[in-house]
Specification:
This protein is mostly beta strands. It has a domain of 76 residues. It contains one helix and eight strands; from the N terminus they run ββββαββββ. The protein has a four-stranded antiparallel sheet with strand order 1-2-3-4, with helices on one face. A four-stranded antiparallel sheet has the order 7-6-5-8. 19% of the residues are buried.
């Protein structure tokens, strides 16, 4: 598990044979597969973890033209230049949200 004190974002990591599974937010799942020599790209994995913990991950929910209000997680983008992405993109999804920690809403200003 990886945790950031400032953002309060949590990432779950699981070693599954020759894969590392990274789970964050509502539906972000990345699978890192070991190279043929059995080694993982530790630098790349560290970069992804750092980006998520610092709030540079966006999750997409639902389908843009869906009339049934199906709003489960359907895609993600990680990093400023979206080097890591999966599922639907921003134009295909119904809405998007930045991955934030559980207390992020406490810092919001709610207008009446």
């Amino acid at each position: 598990m990886a945790w950031d004190d400032n953002s309060e974002i949590t990432i779950r990591l699981s070693l599954r044979g020759e894969e590392i599974w990274l789970l964050a937010g509502s539906g972000t799942l990345l699978r890192f597969v070991a190279a043929s020599d059995g080694e993982f790209d530790h630098e790349g994995i560290g970069y992804v973890i750092n980006q998520i913990l610092h709030g540079a991950a966006i999750e997409f929910f639902g389908v843009a033209e869906d009339t049934d209000n199906v709003n489960f997680a359907t895609g993600f983008e990680i990093g400023q230049s979206q080097e890591f992405a999966g599922g639907l993109n921003g134009s295909q999804a119904r809405f998007r949200t930045r991955l934030a920690g559980p207390m992020a809403s406490a810092a919001l200003t709610i207008l009446e």
